Amino acid sequence: MRLDSPKQNLSSKVRLQKYLALCGVGSRRACEACIDQGRVAVDGLTIEGQGLCIDPETSTVTVDGHPVRPQQKVYLCLNKPRDVLCTSRDTHDRKTFLDLLPDIPERVYTVGRLDRDSEGLLLVTNDGELAVRLTHPRYHMPKTYHVWLDKPIDANQQRQLLIGITDDDELLTATRIAPLPNDKSRFPAYEIILNEGKNRQLRRMFQALDRRVKRLLRVRIGPLTLGTLKKGQWRTLTPREIQMLNTVRS
Fold this sequence. Notes:
The chain is α+β, with helices and mostly antiparallel strands. The chain folds into three domains: 14-67, Structural Genomics Hypothetical 15.5 Kd Protein In mrcA-pckA Intergenic Region, Chain A, CATH 3.10.290.10; 75-136 and 224-246, Pseudouridine synthase I, catalytic domain, N-terminal subdomain (Alpha-Beta Plaits, 2-Layer Sandwich), CATH 3.30.70.580; 142-221, Pseudouridine synthase (2-Layer Sandwich), CATH 3.30.2350.10. Helices cover 20% and strands 27% of the residues. The chain contains six helices and 17 strands. It has helices at residues 16-22, 28-36, 128-135, 155-163, 201-208, 239-246; strands at 14-15, 40-42, 45-47, 53-54, 61-63, 66-67, 75-80, 109-110, 119-125, 143-149, 165-167, 170-172, 176-179, 189-194, 213-221, 224-225, 234-236. A hairpin with an 8-residue loop joins strand 8 and strand 9.
């Protein structure tokens, strides 16, 4: 199955680390580390310093002796069910997000993660630069969650979530919290917005309030929404959605 996505537009000259990122080697920073480690060669000559510009049309670039070429960019939206991992491989043969997708020749990964028990919106791509913009704390990318608890929280506890809760020497804060209107579940439900994505953040915050998360669903990442996408289903992002994500600024 072919996944349509925008073609790469390489100028006649491009910095080596950017070219490597376009080839799917890793993020720009990871590619710079590859260069510093002497793992990258251009036209047979090992490169050990930053700043080199190459002509993609005429230069042959290798990493660890293997030629690399720009990948077609892939941008997918996936509704992750529970008991699915965000890792590409699992040593215990548990289901991963890749099991929900068709065979894709490019190496793709999730932008940020949802833990095994959490559900909802995942962005899957091979665009390392976009991944950095959407996950680095300085960009303050808002993420919206719907959370169901075993017991309700009062106004003072809601204020505490907004002020911040310290756990394992980390300050965990929410940007907004409000009861989820018209929810028919038997558990109290809330909509919560985070501007950060620390490990199991919401579960840790509610545990500090002596509350147990019964269900956690991510419904929005910045301008990207889960919409009517059903559990386990995926779709390609529209050009408009890709453009909006790429215009994220700090």
